[in-house]
Structures are given as structure tokens and as C-alpha cells.
């Protein structure tokens, strides 16, 4: 049993009470999961708040309705309880624990009936409950082999919830099953197709139409010629144990012809000219959704390599849509798969340490540089001055200052940023200040020059620029530029118009290098040292040069500044370089004129016989002109 304790708490010296709740589980109870504990705690808060009036109004609100602080505290407690309940409902929904999720939403609605988030999560829970039942039914259908019915149910879920992970996974499985079924069906159709029939031909300087007539009579192949196919085309072909498909392709290739397959045993032959291809070739439209590469890059690749004329990109959705032959679409698919790979990423741990030491000293007696002697105002003639006693002269006061000052300053400036960068993309780190540089300019006019002021900002501090490159072996190349700057002097000026200019003298230390490190290897760079030593002395002439007593008549100062910059960098590969599959790295693309996804190869007779096909052997005994055959001058050749 769970016990709920409440205790009062005073806030801001007010007499109002705020509800505080805690749960005390039994001593022998085992620890519950974090989400369960959080839900129990939230439910306990909800019960207590509901007991206090449904809207988290504690008794002080009724005692003093004008007490704004008590109202604010009550609303704060209610909102905290509602948020915690709804967070737990989200967690339960992700784990398909819909009963617990619905219970949390119900309690949240009791506390805040107007909560839009509670209403939305409640709707999502009911939708997920329905989708889970549909997907479970689809899974049972997949196990029975009813892939079409399962695909229909999965599609219904994805239409309503495209982000459903279970439906997405099942859709991928169904797509794979569908591809396997299509491949098996294509293999069966190809094995039974007349175009896979093996033939052997021996024709020398024979008319193309006569060769196709012979193939038609012996294999049952129907051939239709375009009206523009020349009647005087001839071919010479000697093939042994070749499929009818490959034989036809070789004859067409010799005579710049192309074909369109109308059905399983009918071919339409036409000249392989651009005009005829536009007239007869069936084209497909395919949209490629790109994830890791820019659509403009793929568009340029397809136009340069495959000579794709119609390629349209959508920069907003990062898609490229092309229109071409099925073979062209297939080759483009393989090429895009080899290019659309995730880019490697590197996490760089950088530490920049600036160690500075400043020692300044000022020791000695600082005597005045000058003094003034004056006469009384009545002594304004030479005769009076000649008889003026020495004690009547006015001498300015003489004072000396003893300096005993020694200052040591040690400073360490440490910057330790972590930055994530993509492969071959620059990343910049700036740690410092933007200081204003004020300049003035004048523009002449008839009424006199007009002055304007411009303000520009200059970056002063630590600037680091890195460009990583991930190699196949796991190493990381880094191009590094480091610049450390500081203000050494301020220069200001003004003009007659009251406009001032402000500039700075900047001291800079920079380093540029390229290095190659292993994943997790640390490289330390140092030696960017600035060392300044300044000494000065103020002495009384003559007395200040004495060997020992001269220290009493001189003031010596010194300033020694030394600064060193140390850089430490460690690369960590977050996403390694991914290589394309071997099947997509090398694909057949046909000739420069015609794009084909497969290589033109002649199958061996043994491979064809294994499929149980009939072998047709054709051998021309005598070649005569077709016109003589049509006139009946000679008998038809025998095969």
C-alpha cells in the first residue's frame, strides 16, 4: 500500500500553504522501474490535488480569494503534476503500454480539463492502439504468405502515421518479399521466353530481312519492321550456342537498328536514330529522394555521364526527378546509390592554454627633473638685482619620491571547446571580444563638408579554424589555423567638428599546419611565445653615475612580460567513412550512344540447355538476293 503524506510550507513570508507530497513504499518492496515510480508519484500528486478541490486550490485560496501568491503557487503545483503525468503517458505510449498511458492522461484531464496536450496525447493513444491491432493482423498474414493483404494493412497505417516505426519495418520486409517474388517471376518468364531459345547461325552477307524471316520460321518469333528500315541492309554473323535475344541484339547492333518488344514473342524493329527513339522508346519517370548529397550535384552527374536531358531538382525537398528509358533509370539508380552516402563526421576536443607572466619593478628615489628660481616683483631693474641678497630669491619647493614597487602577475587563459564538423567542411571557433573601431569621413558639399562616423567591429581573442578529413583507414587529417590576438595600444583622434576616431594596435600570433592523427590521438602544439623585457632609469646627472651612491640619486624600473600559447587537439570519429557496395561501385552503362544496364554477352549452350530449352541450329547453304526469292527464281534455302 502506498501512503501519501502532505505537509505545509510557507513561501515569501506568506501564510499560504503549498502542497508537498512524497510516497513511502514498503521497506521490503523491490525497486520499481523509473517510469513506474514517476507514474506513481504523479498519480499521488494528482489524487492529493483533486482532494484539495480539483483545481489544486488549497484552503487558503477560499480563505483569502485576493491572495495572488497562493493562486500562483496552486497553479504551479497543478501544472507540474499535469506535465509529469503527460510525460509518463508519452513514455508508456512509446512502449505500447496503452492502459497505463490512458490512465495517466485521464488523471491529467481531471486536473486540467482544458489541457490541449492531454487531448492530443489521448487521441494519439487511441490511434496507436488501433494501429497496433492492424499491424498484428498484418504480421499474421505475412506468416501465412498473404503479402498483398498484409501490404494493404501496413499501407493504411503509414497513411495515418508515417512515423510509425513498426509499420516502417514491416513495409521494408514486404518490399523485400515483393522484390524476391518479382525476381522469381522474371526468372520464370525469362526461362520460358522465346528470346531465351538457343540458336546457332552461319550467315555471310545475307539480307537482314531474310535472316529475321529464317528466325521467325524456326523459332516462332514475330518480327515487324518500321517503314524506314532499309531493304538492302545486309549482315554477316557466325554464332554458336547463343540465345535468340543475344543474336537479335548483335544483328541490330551491326546495322544501327533498335527494337521494341511488344510481347513475349513479338519484336518491332526500327532505325536507331534520335527521331525514331523519341517516337518508339517507352520512357519512365523516377524521383530520387536524396539524403546525404546535394540534388544539384546529382543533376550535374547524370547530365554529364548518362546524357540525361530531362532532370529536374527540388532544392526544398532535395529530390531529383529524371525521365528516360528503363535502362537509363536503372543505371541512374545504381550511380545515385554509390553517391548518396552519409558524410563522415568528427568531434574535435580542443584545449587552448595561454600562460602569461608579468614582472614589473620600480625601485629608487625619484628626484624632480627641474626647479624654478624667481625674484621679488620689485626687483625689475639691473641695479636692484645687482644688490639683491641671495636669501631674497624665491625657489620652488624640491621634493623627492622613494619608489619601492615590485609586481608579479601570473595568468592562465584556458578555452576548452568541443566542436563537431563534417568531412572536408570548415569549422570555426572564436573566443574573445568584438571591439569597435570608429572612423570618420567627410563629404564635400556647397554648404561645407559634412562629417559622418562609421563603426566597425574587430574580433580580438582566440580564433581557431579546422577542416577535418576522414580517411578509409580511420585516420583523421586536420587543416588547422590558429590566431591569438590582443590589444596592445589604443589610438584616438578628433577633429574640429567634435567627431573622434578610435583605432587599436593589435598584437597577433598565428600558426597554420596540416596534420594526420589516429582516432583518439592527442597532439600538443606549443612554442607560440611572446617575450618582452623593458628597462628604464631616471638619474640625477653626475650623481646618478656614482658606483654605489648613484642608487640614491636614481630611479630604476623594469617590465618583463612572457606569454606562451599551447594548443591540444584530439579528434574522435563520430561517423566513419562508408564505402559504396561493390555492386554499385561498378555498373554497366552500355555504349556512348545507347544506355544499357546489362552487358551484351552470348550465353553458352550448356547454360541454356540446363534450363530445358530447345536448341535451334540455322545454317545458310546458299545466299541469293531476296528479289529472286520473291520472284521464285530459286528455291528457298534449307535449314
UniProtKB/TrEMBL annotation:
Compositional bias annotation for Low complexity: 22-33
Subcellular localization: Cell outer membrane; Membrane
Residues in Secretin/TonB short N-terminal domain copies: 221-272
GO BP terms in the entry: protein secretion
Example of a GO cellular component annotation carried by this entry: cell outer membrane
Classification via Gene3D superfamilies: 3.30.1370.120, 3.55.50.30
Protein's UniProt keywords contain S-adenosyl-L-methionine: no
Main location: membrane
Pfam families, A to Z: Secretin, Secretin_N, STN
Residue segments, region Disordered: 1-33
Organism: Burkholderia cepacia GG4
Alphabetically ordered keywords of this record: Cell outer membrane, Membrane, Signal, Transport
Annotated protein name in UniProt: Secretion type II protein
SMART domains cross-referenced by the UniProt entry: STN
Entry keyword annotation includes Membrane: yes
Amino acid at each position: 500500500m502506498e501512503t501519501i503524506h502532505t505537509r505545509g510550507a510557507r513561501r515569501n513570508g506568506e501564510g499560504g500553504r503549498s502542497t508537498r507530497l512524497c510516497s513511502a513504499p514498503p521497506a521490503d518492496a523491490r525497486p520499481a522501474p523509473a517510469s513506474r515510480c514517476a507514474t506513481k508519484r504523479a498519480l499521488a500528486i494528482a489524487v492529493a490535488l483533486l482532494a484539495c478541490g480539483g483545481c489544486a486550490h488549497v484552503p487558503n485560496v477560499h480563505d483569502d480569494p485576493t491572495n495572488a501568491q497562493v493562486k500562483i503557487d496552486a497553479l504551479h503545483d497543478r501544472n507540474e503534476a499535469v506535465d509529469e503525468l503527460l510525460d509518463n503517458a508519452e513514455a508508456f505510449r512509446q512502449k505500447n503500454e496503452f492502459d497505463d498511458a490512458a490512465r495517466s492522461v485521464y488523471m491529467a484531464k481531471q486536473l486540467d480539463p482544458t489541457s490541449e496536450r492531454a487531448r492530443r496525447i489521448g487521441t494519439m493513444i487511441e490511434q496507436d492502439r488501433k494501429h497496433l491491432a492492424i499491424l498484428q493482423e498484418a504480421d499474421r498474414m505475412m506468416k501465412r504468405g498473404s503479402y498483398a493483404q498484409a501490404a494493404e494493412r501496413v499501407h493504411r497505417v503509414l497513411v495515418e502515421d508515417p512515423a510509425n516505426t513498426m509499420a516502417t519495418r514491416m513495409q521494408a520486409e514486404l518490399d523485400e518479399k515483393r522484390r524476391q517474388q518479382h525476381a522469381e517471376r522474371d526468372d520464370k518468364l525469362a526461362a520460358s521466353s522465346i528470346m531465351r531459345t538457343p540458336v546457332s547461325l552461319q550467315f555471310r552477307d545475307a539480307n537482314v530481312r531474310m535472316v529475321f524471316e529464317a528466325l521467325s520460321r524456326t523459332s516462332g518469333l514475330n518480327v515487324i519492321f518500321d517503314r524506314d528500315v532499309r531493304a538492302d541492309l545486309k549482315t554477316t554473323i557466325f554464332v554458336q550456342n547463343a540465345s535468340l535475344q543475344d543474336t537479335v541484339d548483335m544483328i541490330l547492333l551491326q546495322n544501327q537498328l533498335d527494337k521494341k518488344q511488344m510481347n513475349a514473342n513479338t519484336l518491332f524493329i526500327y532505325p536507331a536514330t534520335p527521331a525514331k527513339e523519341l517516337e518508339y522508346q517507352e520512357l519512365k519517370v523516377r524521383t530520387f529522394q536524396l539524403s546525404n548529397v546535394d540534388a544539384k550535384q546529382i543533376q550535374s552527374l547524370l547530365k554529364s555521364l548518362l546524357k540525361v536531358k530531362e532532370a529536374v531538382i527540388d532544392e526544398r525537398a532535395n529530390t531529383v526527378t529524371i525521365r528516360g528509358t528503363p535502362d537509363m533509370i536503372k543505371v541512374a539508380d545504381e550511380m545515385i546509390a554509390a553517391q548518396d552516402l552519409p558524410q563522415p563526421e568528427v568531434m574535435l576536443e580542443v584545449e587552448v592554454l595561454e600562460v602569461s607572466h608579468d614582472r614589473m619593478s620600480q625601485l629608487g628615489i625619484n628626484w624632480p627633473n627641474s626647479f624654478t628660481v624667481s625674484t621679488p616683483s620689485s626687483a625689475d631693474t639691473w641695479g636692484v638685482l645687482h644688490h639683491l641678497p641671495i636669501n631674497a630669491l624665491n625657489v620652488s619647493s624640491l621634493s623627492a619620491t622613494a619608489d619601492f614597487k615590485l609586481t608579479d602577475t601570473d595568468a592562465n587563459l584556458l578555452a576548452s571547446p568541443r566542436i563537431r564538423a563534417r568531412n572536408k567542411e570548415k569549422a570555426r571557433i572564436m573566443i574573445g571580444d568584438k571591439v569597435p573601431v570608429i572612423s570618420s569621413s567627410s563629404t564635400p558639399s556647397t554648404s561645407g563638408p559634412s562629417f559622418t562616423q562609421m563603426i566597425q567591429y574587430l574580433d580580438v581573442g582566440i580564433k581557431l579554424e579546422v577542416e577535418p578529413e576522414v580517411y578509409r583507414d580511420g585516420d583523421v587529417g586536420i587543416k588547422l589555423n590558429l590566431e591569438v590576438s590582443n590589444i596592445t595600444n589604443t589610438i584616438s583622434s578628433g577633429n574640429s567638428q567634435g567627431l573622434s576616431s578610435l583605432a587599436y594596435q593589435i598584437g597577433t600570433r598565428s600558426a597554420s599546419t596540416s596534420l594526420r592523427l589516429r582516432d583518439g590521438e592527442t597532439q600538443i602544439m606549443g612554442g607560440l611565445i611572446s617575450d618582452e623585457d623593458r628597462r628604464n632609469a631616471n638619474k640625477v646627472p653626475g650623481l646618478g653615475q656614482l658606483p654605489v651612491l648613484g642608487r640614491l640619486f636614481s630611479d630604476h624600473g623594469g617590465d618583463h612580460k612572457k606569454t606562451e600559447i599551447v594548443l591540444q587537439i584530439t579528434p574522435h570519429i563520430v561517423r566513419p567513412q562508408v564505402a559504396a557496395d561493390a555492386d554499385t561501385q561498378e555498373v554497366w552503362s552500355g555504349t556512348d550512344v545507347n544506355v544499357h544496364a546489362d552487358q551484351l554477352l552470348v550465353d553458352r549452350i550448356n547454360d541454356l540447355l540446363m534450363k530445358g530449352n530447345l536448341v535451334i541450329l540455322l545454317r545458310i547453304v546458299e545466299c541469293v538476293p531476296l528479289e529472286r526469292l520473291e520472284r521464285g527464281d530459286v528455291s528457298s534455302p534449307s535449314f
